[in-house]
Design a protein that fits this description.
The structure holds 2 protein chains of 2 kinds. Chain A is an alpha+beta fold. Chain A contains 3 helices and 7 strands. In chain A, strand 4, helix 3 and strand 5 form a beta-alpha-beta unit. The longest helix of chain A has 19 residues. Chain B has a 5-stranded antiparallel beta sheet. Chain B is an alpha+beta fold. The chains are: A alpha+beta, B alpha+beta. Chains A and B meet through helix 3, strand 6 and strand 7 of A and strand 3, helix 3 and strand 5 of B. Strand 7 of chain A pairs parallel with strand 3 of chain B, so a sheet runs across the interface.
Chain lengths: 163, 445
């Protein structure tokens, strides 16, 4: 009798857990924002993530990028673009998504530019069907000769050991 | 356990330091080679790195200052690939980086250093080594440490169990013996064996039981003797009183019988007093002393026994010239001298002599009381200081002796740090010699 009661309890718990996984907090519309994750050690990855749930009236890509440029909620993460940076233009051409940012980010150092653009590109590659993301600044980047183009293959975030 | 952990940690630290030094130095060397290049591209970097043996390194990445990969030893990089590895990003901030990880039986070491040319940061070089050999070495070290610790722990636990069991068994032996003794079997002897503290405890226990047995035997003997001694005068009193009641007798005979009853009652009284005294002497530690010369006390005793001596036709001689101060209560000294002198009179013969003599041998004051009486048989000499022991019971009762006088004397002498000796020859007399330590006022104070 005790065994039966235990089995019933386990089944009820399993049903409840399944139900919990479908609560509004675990919204299927949640997207992942990538930001720079500074760290004193090398234990953490350079790119950190935090979830973001777009509002229904601001779920278009431009709104999402605007929300992204406001910076992370998580204090451990960091947005390297200057605070004033805004999105100027967004063009989707087949697999290529071109994002033009305001000139505020034009004078960033090369490594900061690489890291921050990689974060934005990773975010966009995950929420759109584009396979390449081109990021440029209004009037061009002072420290980069050409527009920065990113794809899943061009961002190496971990050294996978080849056995 | 702590030693093993310390040893393992120390070994790991040595591995870590060696690896850090060797990998960082390789990075420095490679960075120096690259910084001297006029044109930095995949071909030139590849040629520069050829001179440095990198067979032991699994991966080398060289980036520009924007973390774009210029050279990757694992293949041709995409034209615009970014190496956003933590080590590279950190080294592009100007730091030397080394990280170390042991997982899945392999040791993975990563090092990165900035490449500086003419004072400007031009990129970063990153090296990664996935060392299974050293990993297996660390793994075997950990396994061995764990195994040794485990074996040692097991041995320790086993030893503790055996030791505690043996210890408990021996303790139980002592407990059992205590229970046996408590039940009254004083013949029991504890056999501990071994050669440790418990053995010593066992020996002490046996010694204690021996003393207890002796004490118990003495107590039984005393009760038996005292009962017997008290029974005799009581029986006499009963007999005499029955005779008065049952027989018709004249007044003079009845008076004689009543006088005898009185004498027996006096004897009982004396015996009871002496028993009380003996008990008192044995039960109390001597805590009071006085420094006295013996001569005045002896003279007092002599005056006391003078009548008895004259009645028995015995001459009392005193030789008290060599007197010495001793530490004793005067009442106790009086008791010693009186008892010995009284014995000298009781067991003397008419016309005999009692001599009390004082002398000194170095630091010992000697009191000698000798008589010219009947003497004591040799086989009785060793018993005369026992309670209720009488050489001639008939004579002793006749003289009113209780058999306790000499026992009291011996007790008092010994508790005052003295010793008593007896010499006797049948028909010639007996000599009691008492030694006391002389109290030297200047030294002893």
């Amino acid at each position: 009798l005790k065994k039966d009661k235990l089995t019933i309890l386990v089944i009820i718990l399993a049903i409840l857990l399944c139900a919990c996984s479908r609560l509004p907090g675990n919204n299927e519309n949640a997207i992942t924002f990538y930001y720079y994750q500074p760290s004193q050690s090398t234990v953490k990855d350079v790119l950190g993530t935090e979830p973001f749930i777009p509002k229904e009236d601001a779920s278009d890509l431009q709104s999402i990028i605007r929300a992204y440029l406001k910076g992370p909620q998580n204090a451990d993460l960091q947005l390297l673009f200057p605070k004033e940076t805004t999105i100027v233009e967004l063009i989707e051409e087949g697999d290529l998504l071109t994002v033009t940012l305001s000139k505020h980010c034009a004078n960033m150092s090369r490594i900061d530019l690489a890291v921050s653009c990689s974060c934005l590109a990773q975010t966009l590659l995950h929420i759109t069907s584009a396979t390449q993301v081109c990021i440029q600044a209004e009037g061009g980047f002072a420290n980069a000769e050409e527009p920065l183009i990113f794809s899943e293959e061009t961002i190496l975030t971990e050294d996978v050991i080849l056995q | 356990l702590f030693l093993n952990i310390y040893s393992a940690k120390t070994n790991q630290a040595i591995f870590y330091n060696n690896k850090q030094t060797s990998m960082t130095e390789r990075c420095y060397l490679a960075a120096a080679q690259i910084s001297e290049l006029q044109i930095v591209n995949r071909t030139t970097v590849s040629q520069a790195l050829e001179t440095i043996s990198s067979s032991w390194v699994n991966r080398v990445i060289v980036t520009d200052e924007a973390a774009r990969i210029i050279y990757d030893s694992t293949g041709t990089p995409n034209k615009t690939s970014y190496a956003l590895l933590p080590e590279i990003v950190k080294s592009l901030s100007g730091y030397d980086v080394f990280s170390w990880k042991y997982a899945d039986g392999a040791m993975t070491s990563k090092a990165a250093t900035p490449i500086v040319s003419y004072g400007s940061l031009i990129g970063s070089i990153y090296m990664m080594e996935h060392d299974v050999q050293q990993g297996s070495l660390i793994h075997s070290l950990q396994v061995n440490t764990f195994s040794i610790t485990l074996v040692l722990e097991l041995i320790l636990i086993l030893f503790s169990l055996i030791f505690s069991k043996a210890f408990t068994a021996r303790l139980r032996k002592i407990m059992d013996s205590i229970r046996i003794i408590r039940k009254g079997d004083y013949t029991h002897q504890l056999k501990m064996g071994g050669n440790d503290e418990l053995t010593v405890l066992g020996d002490e226990f046996n010694d204690l039981v021996d003393r207890l047995r002796t004490s118990e035997n003495k107590r039984r003997q005393f009760v038996s003797d005292a009962s017997h001694e008290l029974k005799t005068p009581l029986a006499s009193i009963k007999l005499l009183s029955d005779s008065i009641l049952q027989n018709e007798m004249d007044m003079a005979t009845a008076r004689e019988f009543v006088e005898d009853i009185g004498n027996e009652a006096d004897r009982l009284n004396r015996m009871a007093q002496k028993l009380l005294m003996l008990t008192h002497i044995e039960a109390h530690e001597n805590s009071e002393f006085e420094i006295i010369y013996m001569a005045p006390t002896i003279e007092r005793v002599a005056r006391m026994i003078d009548v008895l001596a004259k009645n028995n036709g015995i001459t009392v001689e005193l030789d008290l010239e060599n007197d010495s101060p001793i530490l004793i209560l005067e009442d106790e000294l009086y008791q010693i001298v009186f008892n010995l002198a009284e014995n000298g009179l009781k067991y003397n013969t008419s016309g005999g002599k009692l001599t009390i003599c004082l002398s000194r041998k170095k630091d010992t004051a000697v009191l000698k009381i000798s008589d010219t009486g009947v003497g004591i048989p040799e086989d009785s000499l060793e018993h005369i200081f026992e309670r209720f022991y009488r050489v001639d019971k008939a004579r002793s009762r006749q003289t009113g002796g209780s058999g306790l006088g000499l026992a009291i004397v011996k007790n008092i002498v010994e508790r005052n740090g003295g010793q008593i000796y007896v010499e006797s020859a049948l028909g010639e007399g007996t000599c009691f010699t008492v030694h006391f330590p002389v109290f030297d006022a200047e030294v002893d104070r």
